[in-house]
Every structure is written in C-alpha cells, then in structure tokens.
Design brief:
The strands form four sheets. A four-stranded mixed beta sheet has the order 8-5-9-11. Strands 3-10-4 form a three-stranded antiparallel beta sheet. With about 350 residues, the chain is α/β, with parallel strands linked by helices. The longest helix is centred in the last third of the chain and has 36 residues. It has two domains: about 160 residues, D-Maltodextrin-Binding Protein, domain 2 (3-Layer(aba) Sandwich), CATH 3.40.190.170; about 140 residues, D-Maltodextrin-Binding Protein, domain 2. Helix 7 packs antiparallel against helix 13.
C-alpha cells in the first residue's frame, strides 16, 4: 500500500472515531431526591432511560441522586455553572429569582387540575417569551414541566374544623403558602420537603402540605396518620431545566429527543402520578394506616379567599412580573388563564 493511502486510511479512521466521540453525549442529571423516592424521581429516571432508548444507546444520562452533588436549593446555580447539565427547578423556593415562572404558586386555592396546569405551563412558555427569557438570564432552558397535583395536609393529629387549625405548625415556603396558613389560624414554618419527616417525627411540625403519593414518598405518612382533604387545589409548577449552552452544543438528534420531552415527559409524569395517587388512597383505605378526613370546602375557601393578606399576595404577582420585564397585558392574560 502506498504511503499516501496509508495516511489517508489512518486519517479516515481517526475521523470516524473522533466523530463518534463528539456526537455521543452523556448528560448529567442532578437531583436532591433519592432514586425511586417519589414520582419526581421516577419520572426523571424515565427521562434518562428514554434518552438512551430513543438514541439507540448512543446518548445516555448519568443520574446523580439523593443530593450527592446538589441540594434542592442549589439546582439552578449548579445547572447554570455546568456542575450538572439537567435538574429540577423547584420554582416556589425561588420566588424572587424567578418571579415570572412563579405565577402558579401565588394563587391559593385555585381551580385548575394537575393536567390543566401542565398544559398551561407549556402554553405560557410558547406564547409569552418572558418565561423563557427569565430562565435564560441564568443560562437555563426549560426541558419540561412537573405540575403538582391537588394538595391536602398530612398531620400528626386530626383536623376537622377551622378551629382545629389554630396554632398548628405547618411546613411552608414561598410567599402565598404562608399567607394561606396564617389565614387558617396556623403558624407557617419555612422548611424544604426533604426535612419534613424528621420535623413531623419530633414535633417541630404538626402538618405538612402534600398530596397522598408525596407523603408516602417522603415517608411522612409513617409518622403522621391523618390526611386532611382541604380544597387547596393543584398548584406549584416545577420545571426540569437544562444548561442552555449545553443544549445549544448538542448534536441534532439529541436536541430533537430533548425537544420531544416537553410533552412526552409531562404525559408520563401525569400518568405515573395518577396511578400512584390511586394506589396510595386504595392502600390507605384497605390498611387503615392513614385516616382521610374530608374538610368542609366552604369553610376553608371562606377563611382563605376572604383573607386580605391572601388576596394581596394573589394581586401582587402581576406587579412582580411587570417589575421583571413582562408586559402587563401578558401578565394579566396569564392570571386569566389560571383562574378562569
């Protein structure tokens, strides 16, 4: 073989190897929850598996669980600085950093279902550029959304009337939730969900907001035996975010997979959550482990929606969004979408 042909063959081999290396991606997903702990963790694992499946194992996602790399309050900064590529942004924990993307947590109670909230979140990102622009300020891009289901309260003691709420210490965060808790006559205690089990166990908390599946995932129902079915409604909108520079650097086939996750991930998340909720309620009914206490809806709504502080919080979101650069007409359209 001539020297020229040898050189050409070597160059081709190097090129093929290099191309394979460049276009095979291993994304890093960081999560504060343990693997399989709840529907958030399970759906994140589904996403990682889907990336491998849809790419024929060409691209993969390394799952970093249980706060080993990032705690819940560190996720946006970690994604921004490429410590991880993808992670869950728990928007209510950052009301000042992401005021526009915190539209939902300002409204308690509200009438939309979990599925309706998910569709609204995708709709808002498609119709109002300010949602994406706000994330982009921190090098973040929305991959998909995780709307929470209707919440109740898991408590260590029975709560059957408004008077029973008086003085109870209830886990809280954000801006609207503390106002709602105070309207019930209870005391808000600022705390992330990861600390709820210990706090309920040792009496620091009497109750924590949550849906049935979440209480099982965090093992709150092991130490709190009363689920108060208050009509808080579905709320909070978490966002799965990715470093925007990392996204822009991806090969076209992986970009398409990530883009398809907007609706596919949401559909899987809702399917999984619905099954888990039904299974949890059925298990409680069969075992008697947790007593489900229906709370008078009229009493709850009157106490919360007639409260001046609750109404002031609800009204404040438009001004917060405007201060963050969103046109008032767009902000009011978001509120109309949410409350109609």
């Amino acid at each position: 073989m001539s020297k020229l042909k040898v050189i050409s063959s070597l160059a081709l081999a190097v090129s093929l190897c290099t191309t394979g290396l460049v276009h095979a991606e291993r994304l890093k997903y960081g999560d504060y929850t343990p693997q399989g702990a709840n529907e958030y963790a399970k759906s994140a694992e589904w996403m990682g598996n889907e990336i491998a499946k849809r790419s024929g194992n060409k691209h993969t996602m390394m799952m970093l669980w249980g706060g080993t790399v990032v705690k819940v309050g560190e996720v946006p900064t970690a994604v921004e600085n490429k410590v991880i590529d993808v992670g869950p942004l728990i928007t209510p924990y950052f009301p000042d950093q992401f005021p526009i993307n915190n539209a939902i947590p300002f409204f308690w109670p509200q009438p939309k279902s979990q599925a309706q909230l998910g569709e609204l979140m995708l709709k808002w990102h498609a119709e109002h550029p300010d949602f994406a622009k706000e994330l982009a300020k921190y090098k973040l891009k929305m991959v998909s959304v995780r709307p929470l289901p209707a919440y109740g309260m898991i408590c260590t003691k029975p709560v059957r009337t408004l008077a029973d709420f008086k003085g109870l210490r209830i886990r809280s965060y954000g801006i609207a939730l503390p106002a709602m808790i105070e309207a019930l006559g209870a005391v808000p205690v600022s705390m992330a969900d990861v600390d709820g089990y210990e706090a309920l166990s040792n009496g620091i908390l009497d109750c924590s907001p949550g849906d049935p599946a979440l209480t099982v995932g965090w093992k709150w129902s092991d130490v709190a035996k009363f689920f108060i079915d208050v009509p808080m409604g579905a709320s909070w909108g978490h966002i799965v975010v990715m470093n925007i520079d990392k996204y822009n650097s991806l090969p076209p086939d992986l970009k398409k997979i990530i883009d398809d996750m907007k609706k596919d991930y949401l559909a899987e998340f809702l399917r999984s959550y619905d099954k888990s909720t039904k299974d949890t309620l059925a298990a409680w009914k069969t075992s008697g482990k947790v007593e489900i206490i229906p709370f008078p809806a009229d009493e709850f709504n009157k106490a919360t929606l007639s409260n001046a502080k609750v109404q002031a919080v609800r009204a404040s979101w438009v001004n917060r969004a405007k201060a963050a650069g969103m046109p008032e007409a767009s902000a009011r359209k978001v509120v109309d979408d949410l409350l109609k």
